[in-house]
Amino acid sequence: MRIIIINGPNLNLLGKREPEVYGAETFEDYFSKLQFKFKDVELEYFQSNIEGELISKIQEIGFTYDGIVLNAAAYTHTSVGIGDAVKAVTTPVIEVHISNTHRREEFRHVSYISAPASGVILGFGLKSYDLAIESFLF
């Protein structure tokens, strides 16, 4: 099974950025733990702060992978283009957020990804990624 995690803007700053919201662990350290936990899954990771690069990656792998775990971060609430990319591909996409976006600013209550996604997981910290990967295994 081949699954990719795609992270959007500012998630490269995990461990440094707002630790009270996002925790103190870097995503790279966390990703190593995911690879260890899901040894039978070919896990990949891609991060970009650029909307077009996220769309290009979704299009590139969206017909050949078994799953996409997508945390589009702030683009979740602004990017019709990313939502359209999710809708266009055949690989199932799970939308993930570390925080519960519904407990935050009102603009974060809107997602252009939720409707075309296969599922949405939010508010469980980095554990949200574990849950998304597990959803592809059953």
TrEMBL record:
Substrate binds at N71, H77, D84, I98, S99, R108. This is 3-dehydroquinate dehydratase. The active site is at Y22 (proton acceptor), H97 (proton donor). Belongs to the type-II 3-dehydroquinase family. It catalyses: 3-dehydroquinate = 3-dehydroshikimate + H2O. The lineage of its organism: Bacteria, Pseudomonadati, Bacteroidota, Flavobacteriia, Flavobacteriales. It comes from the Bacteria. Homododecamer. Pathway: Metabolic intermediate biosynthesis; chorismate biosynthesis; chorismate from D-erythrose 4-phosphate and phosphoenolpyruvate: step 3/7. The record marks R17 as: Transition state stabilizer. PANTHER family: CATABOLIC 3-DEHYDROQUINASE. HAMAP family: AroQ. GO terms for biological process: amino acid biosynthetic process; aromatic amino acid family biosynthetic process; chorismate biosynthetic process; quinate catabolic process.
